[in-house]
Amino acid sequence: MIRIIGALVGLGFTFVVMWAFGNGAYNAITEDHVPAAEYTYYKKPVAPAGGFQQDGPFGTWDLAQLQRGYQVYKEVCAACHSMKFVAFRDMADLGYNEDEVKALAAQVQVPGIDPNTGEATTRPALPIDYFPSPYPNNVAAAAANNNAIPPDLSLMAKARGDGTNYIYSLLTGYGPIPAELKADFPDFDTPTGLYFNQYFPNLNLAMAPPITSDGQVTYADGTEATVDQMSKDVAAFMTWTAEPTLVKRKQTGWPVLGFLLFATILAFLSKKQIWSAVKPKKS
Amino acid sequence: MSFPWAREYKPANGFTQFLDERLPLPRLVYNAVGAGYPVPRNLSYMWNFGVLAGFFLVVQIVTGVVLAMHYAANAEVAFATTEHIMRDVNWGWLMRYAHANGASFFFIVVYIHIFRGLFYSSYKAPREMIWLLGVVIFLLMMATAFMGYVLPWGQMSFWGAKVITGLFGAIPLVGEPLQVWLVGGFAPDNAALNRFFSLHFLLPFVIAGVVILHIWALHIPGSSNPTGVEVKKESDTLPFHPYYTAKDGFGLGVVLIFFMLFVFFMPNMLGHPDNYIEANPLATPAHIVPEWYFYPFYAILRAFTFDFILSAKLWGVLAMFASILVWFFLPWLDKSPVRSGHYRPLFRKFFWFGLIPTMIVLFICGGAPAEEPFVMISQIATAYYFLHFLVILPIISSIEKPEPLPYSITEAVLGHDDDAKLGAVSATKA
C-alpha cells in the first residue's frame, strides 16, 4: 500500500515538474533569447602585474604598500566613502609606532562634544576613534552623490568575488565604450551621471573615476604615483582593512597543519599496528 | 542489547567499583564505544563518518558558545558585533571561521554518512529506527544551519531569511498570517533575528539529544557492514576499542587536515561575498542563494515554475519538503532482502549512474542563477529524484536478482569460513 501511494506521489511530482519543463522548453524555442551586453562584455577581475605580496599561502603584508594605500584612501576615497570598522589604533599593524599612530589620528577631525557647553563640535581623532564617515547620514550621502550612496569600504575586499583584484581592476577599468560593444548592442549607452567600466557587473557605474592622473597623491617614500600603482596600493590597503588578521591566519595555519600531519601519521601507524593481528594474511 | 560474547566491564579498582555500583558511567562508555561493543570486523572507512559527524557537532557547540559570548542578536549591531569578533576578540576570527566552515564540514560528513546508508541500505530492518532518527537529525541540522546563517545579518542572511520564511506564505489560506506570526513582522527584522538566535542556540542541544537516541538505537542491532550480512558469531566482530577507536582516530586526523586547510587558507571559499555587505532591505542581491549545502534542495524548490492547480511556489515548497520526507519511507519502499549495494547489480547501477549524478546536477543548478538552461536541467533532475526513490527503487527491489552473498562476515574477510559447510546456505566464487 505504502509503495502504491509512494509511486503515485512520485509520479505526481514528476508530472508537474515535467509540465513546467515542457512549458520552459516551449518558451525557450519560441521566444528569441536576446543576450544582454552585461553578459557578453563583463570582465572578470584581473590581478595587477606581479600580484600582491599577501597573496598565496605564504604571503605577508607589504607594509610600505599598505601605508601608501592608506594615503590614497585618505586623500582620495575618504572624500565619499566611510570605513567604519577600522580604528586608528589598528594602524599600528601597518608598522607605525604609538606616537605615529597618535599623529596620524590627530590629522583627522571626528565629531565630538564640547566639554563645556555639550554642543556638537569636532575634535582631532584619538587612536581609539574609528575612521569618520564623510557624511552625517545616508540621506546626505545620497543627496551629494546623485542618489547613489557610496558603500562602506571596510569589508569591500571580502564583499566582492576576488575582491582585491576586483578593486584594482575597477579602479583601472574605466574607459570609453568599445567599438565592438557598440556594434553588437547599438542600444547600449551609458546614461548621464554614470561611467562605463567593464569590471562592474552591469557595466555602468555611479562612481566617477576616482584615480585619474599620475601624481594624484605624492608618496612620501618616493614611489612613483602612477594610476596603476595607486590602484594597486589602495587595493592592498583594503585587503588589510577587510581582514587585518589575514597574514596571522595563514602563519598560524602552517604549524597547525604540520602538527596534524604528524599526529595523523602516528594515528595511521598505530591503526596499522593494532589491526595487524586480525588482518587476513595475503597469500 | 548486545551480542552474548561482548566483553563485560570489570571495575579495575576501588574507585571505579564504587562508581559502578552508584553511577555506572564508565560501564556505559565501555559498552557504547569501548571494548564492550562488538562491531563487524569488515567496516570500511565509509563507516567513519558517524563518529566524524559527532565530532563536528561538538566543534559547532564549543565554537558557537564562545561566539555567543561576543555576539549581540540585535539588527542594529549584529553585523558590527560579528566584525568585532573578527577584529577585536582574541582569536575571534579563528572561532568564527571554524564555526562557519565547521558547519560546512558537518554537512559534508553527514552527506557522506547518509549516502553510505543509502548505498548499503542501512535503513532496512532491524535498523529502521536508526535511519528515522537520522533523518530527524538532518532536518534539525538544516533548520539550525539556516538560522545560523542569518545571525551575521549580512545581505545573504537577510535575503535568505526573507526567501525561506516567505515559503510559509505559499500555504493556502493561513499562509500569510502564519508567515507574519513566525517572522514577527512583514519582513525579517529584529524580532526574527532574536528568535533565530534563540533557536540557533537551542537546536544543537536538541540535535545532541536525538544523536543519543540515534546511537542507542544503533546499539540494539549493532552496526551494519559492507556485506550487509548480519553478525552471526564472535569471529565476525572485533571490539570497538581499540580497533575502531584507532581507525576513527586516523580518519579524524585526515578530515581535520582538510578542515584546517579551509579554516586557515580559504575560510571564505564556501561562503558568499555578499554576506560581508550589511543587510539592506532596500537592495536585493542579484542572485539570492542559500549556503552550498542547501543547493540541491533549493534547486528542487525552484524547479516548479508553472502554476498547475496549485501555485508554482506551493508546488516547490511541497516538493522541497517531500524530497527529504521521502527518506522516512525508504525502509518500506525498498523491500529487497539484500542490503548491500555490492550484491545488487541493478540497484548499484541506478545508484551510481542515477542518484549520484542527479544530486550533483541539482547541486550545480541550485547554486546557479534562476535562468535557462539551469532551470530546465534542474526540472529533469528533480523528476528523476522523485522517480528514483518512489518508483524505481520499489520496482528494482521486486525484479532484481541479487548476487550470491558470503555466508558470513568471517568468510567475506578471510575468504573461507569453516562453519559455512555446516550451514551450507550460500556459495561464493573461489
Could you write a compact summary of the structure shown?
The complex is a heterodimer of chains A (283) and B (430). By secondary structure, chain A is mainly alpha-helical.
Q: How many E-type strands of chain A?
A: 4
Low-confidence stretches of chain B: 424-430
Instruction: Provide the number of structural domains of chain B.
Output: 2
Name of the CATH class of the largest domain in chain B: Mainly Alpha
Number of helices of chain A: 10
In the CATH hierarchy, what is the class of the domain at 37-50 and 58-86 and 131-247 in chain A? Mainly Alpha
Number of strands of chain B: 2
How far is the first residue's CA from the last residue's CA of chain B? 36 Å
Strand order of the largest sheet of chain B: 1-2
Average pLDDT confidence of chain A is: 93
The gyration radius over C-alpha positions of chain A equals 28 Å
Q: Approximately how much helix is present in the residues of chain A?
A: 40-55%
Describe it.
Chain A is mainly α and 283 residues long. Among the domains of chain A are: 37-50 and 58-86 and 131-247, Cytochrome Bc1 Complex, Chain D, domain 2, CATH 1.10.760.10; 96-128, no CATH class. Chain A is 46% helix and 5% strand. Chain A contains 10 helices and 4 strands; from the N terminus they run ααααββααααββαα. In chain A, the strands form 2 sheets. Chain A has a two-stranded antiparallel ribbon with strand order 1-2. Chain A has a two-stranded antiparallel sheet with strand order 3-4. The longest helix of chain A has 30 residues, at 246-275. Chain A is extended. By secondary structure, chain B is an all-alpha fold. Chain B folds into 2 domains: 31-288, Cytochrome Bc1 Complex, Chain C, CATH 1.20.810; 295-399. Chain B contains 17 helices and 2 strands. A two-stranded antiparallel ribbon of chain B has the order 1-2. The radius of gyration of chain B is 24 Å and the shape is globular. Residues 424-430 of chain B have low confidence and may be disordered. The interface between A and B is large, with 55 and 65 residues.
